[in-house]
């Protein structure tokens, strides 16, 4: 009976863990982070909202087929993030320290130009790594 309870707990933990793919983003300072890729409409809609936290060396990479001014919001988010707007592998803008929403107030965050990718990381990450517009990232997808 105890072993069944242990198996149930282990399975519950495994099921609730985010899925990390063999995708990485290497920053100009040499730091490599593992990223979960959101490249379907449904994955982009959900984003990080299903995550209770984000490890310091993890992020979510949103990829779009065509460049555009895609809006992002913080619906059902439990932690603040930095939004790093990309055109190819080049950072075009950084929206730092995006807060957890207050109640039903869900502001939309937009890039200042058309983008085809967005990297979401923990708040403060961009500043800690000196990321600014014009920096080139190395995006390694499977």
Automatic annotation (TrEMBL):
InterPro entries: DUF192, Saro_0823-like_sf. Gene3D superfamilies: Protein of unknown function DUF192 (2.60.120.1140). Pfam families: DUF192. This is DUF192 domain-containing protein. It comes from Candidatus Uhrbacteria bacterium RIFOXYB2_FULL_57_15. The lineage of its organism: Bacteria, Candidatus Uhriibacteriota.
């Amino acid at each position: 009976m105890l072993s069944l309870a242990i198996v149930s707990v282990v399975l519950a933990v495994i099921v609730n863990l985010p899925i990390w793919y063999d995708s990485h983003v290497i920053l100009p300072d040499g730091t490599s982070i593992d990223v979960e890729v959101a490249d379907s409409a449904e994955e982009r809609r959900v984003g990080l909202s299903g995550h209770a936290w984000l490890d310091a060396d993890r992020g979510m990479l949103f990829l779009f087929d065509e460049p555009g001014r895609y809006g992002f919001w913080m619906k059902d988010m439990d932690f603040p993030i930095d939004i790093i707007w990309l055109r190819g592998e080049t950072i075009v803008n950084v929206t730092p320290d995006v807060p957890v929403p207050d109640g039903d107030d869900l502001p939309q965050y937009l890039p200042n130009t058309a983008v085809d990718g967005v990297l979401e990381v923990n708040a403060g990450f961009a500043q800690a790594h000196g990321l600014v517009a014009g920096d080139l990232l190395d995006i390694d997808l499977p």
